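To fix ideas at the outset, we first show an illustrative case, written as a sequence plus integers encoding its fold:
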Amino acid sequence: MVKMMTAFTTEIDDVDDAVSEILSQLDLSALQKNSVGILTCHFEFIDSGLLGELHRRLPFDIIGMSTMASANPHGKDIYGLTLTVLTGDDVVFAAGSTGPLGADTFREQLAGTYNEAAAKLPGKPAMIISFMPFVRELMGPVLSRTLAEISGEIPVWGGIAFNANANYEDCYVIYNDTNLENALSMVLIYGEVQPEFVVVSIPEEHINKKKGVVTDSEGVILRQVNDMPVLDYLSSIGIVVIKEVSTTTSFMVYYEGSSNPVALGVADVNDDGSLLCGGEIPVGSRISIAAISPKSILDSAAEGLQRVLQYKDSHSGALMLPCGTRYVMSSPNNNDEVDFIAEVMAKNPGFEYSFGYSGGEICPVRDENGNYINRHHNYTFSACIL
């Protein structure tokens, strides 16, 4: 079984003080046979020297990413850093990172890193936690789908690096003391671990009842719905998508065989009028349009926490990485979701948690037979319970 412990700091300027604060919150004497660290932080921590000092002082690998805001039982802040330690006697962790990912090399890079880490394990891993970069030539869904395929569809959970100023040049993936440029980090987990995954997109009452059928698409490119060019179809139901603000459009995608829809955003409008989406939309899928609002964000957070806390007596804690757009679209009360999470979790002492925001959510969902299928999401509340 995996045990979880957490630490938090907002000290960016003084590395020694930051390390002291983190170590004071961790009981390193309680570490079991094998351990790994999961870190999310404000991007200004990256160049502070803290990563190197933590790597030097802690006896385990660390993977992570920059985020927009962080929280755990020790604190919450947009200028925060959370460190979550996973430890266990009957589990084994194997961490690694790729080199810079390119359109022609990413599959080879992912396969090499996965196989190198897997070779350190005594058997097939139970799951993977991965943090992925924003690479303009490679959509996050392509990376997460490729990793799932290479691993033989082992459950993959994680996120796309994000940051507090929404500038993707300041989004970082972390592996030990290194901030990776256009690279991916991962940890494979083997042994007595029974992960549960919670993903809540947009509550049903915020979803348009009209559904169309995808009739032309390729991977993450959506061309036609109901045999109409996608922009014409959207116009016919009263939705106008403008290139400059395309990311405010949310599709609910009903995959064949899935029990619940997946929320996907529109990353861009292509010159031919097709849409570049935040995940795969296969031909034959049904889609609808959903409304994102501060109320729908809090409603989905409440539902997500309710489902997470069903496991508080059987698991050690939860890693949470909802979509960073939720923080942006909660304006002017951007911290409402963070505050709500902290308030609810404070009423459940002993059940650890960490919270950050992601530029894309990687989280398995159950199919109609109860089996997990790897999916990429947008706008959702996402959690991994360990």
Notes: The chain has two domains: 3-200+296-385, 208-290. Residues 250 and 334 are 19 Å apart (CA to CA). The two ends are 8 Å apart (CA to CA). The chain has a mean pLDDT of 90.
